[in-house]
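Thread: Newbie trying to understand structure tokens

Hi all, I'm a second-year student working on a class project, and my supervisor (Dr. K.) asked me to get a predicted structure for one chain before our next meeting. I've only ever worked with sequences, so writing a 3D structure as a token string is new to me. If someone could post the tokens and maybe explain what I'm looking at, I'd be very grateful. Here's the chain:
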Amino acid sequence: MKIESHLAQIGSIKEPVTGAVSFPIYQSTAFRHPQLGQSTGFDYARTKSPTRSVLEEAAAKLESGDAGFACSSGMAALQTIFALFSQGDHLIVSLDLYGGTYRLLERIMSRFGVTASYVDTNDLDGINELYQPNTKAVLIETPTNPLMMITDIERVASWAKAKGLLTIVDNTLLTPFFQRPIELGADIVIHSATKYLGGHNDVLAGLIVTKGKELSEQMAFLHNSIGAVLGPQDSWLLMRGMKTLALRMERHQYNATKISEYLQTHPAVEEVYYPALPHHPNYDIQNKQSSGNTGIFSFRLKDARYIEPILRHVKLIAFAESLGGVESLMTYPAVQTHADIPEEIRRQIGVDDRLLRFSVGIEHVDDLIGDLEQALAAAKQEIGEE
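---
Reply by user tm_fold:
Sure, no problem. This is what the structure looks like when written as tokens:
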């Protein structure tokens, strides 16, 4: 079957007793044993839960992996992955990085002796220069958040494999509908499932998918031992959201492409960062390894004075953190999602006081462009620009 069919059918044939098309929410944390030494396969909900298991199986299939693990948030999923590493281990990490990932590495994992070096992960020479005898993995965001930098996954994964390193890819922004990193050589895929997979700004979740028996067994041990697992109701909500992923991603992509093209021509806008635009420096790599584009992009204004009035005047678009939901959200990375990254690093990569990030929803594209147009016009009038 095509991926659209797999998505729509998540959990639909997993309940043999009643034939429920929507897989039930099993709220129980404990499960009876038929007799001493026997189990139904479910003993305690932290280790394995019926509703969560259906979600995890679906995630593994969609990402072409061997095992899936549903966590209580994207950051919980990342922490579970980082538990693979020990004191003295070193990671090579994408330079343009989500602020929460940077915070976890630099303010928490560093206390346990795990260090990280940051580089444009599409620069193989740069990666090679950072390699150390204690390097254990490469962590890639592609596209990155918020500057939409693209990494050639297959190329980096091949290099990492030759060095005996793990390749971990954050696939939050493209989802398995548009990109499947394990098929390109990655060992682990991570999602903040709160975003496009859930898709409705109503569930907090993270997903991990692993390839290989030994790695999957390690992750299962960590998932159970750390215990940051997803509850049954949130597992059900996530499955419900994923059923419409194909339709939503197509609409997100369409809207984001149209709006980014509009903003490219606006006199107040200096630069638009979106991999679907032909001028993007990694346009060809994106088209090679992905079948489509995300619904999020960033744009830099010519004058920082535009920022505050734009955020105050948008009406249909909400000034809010997060991304990937059906509702359009606009974020100011410098003071929201990337505030934990030191200012000198933010400026080095381009996350400055003129950058806005736009998570484009599934509203009518003309209404979204109209909202941007009136907000930009109001901002122009307020700052007295001719």
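A couple of things are worth pointing out once you decode it. The two ends are 56 Å apart (CA to CA). The chain has two domains: 3-242, 245-382. Feel free to ask follow-ups in this thread.
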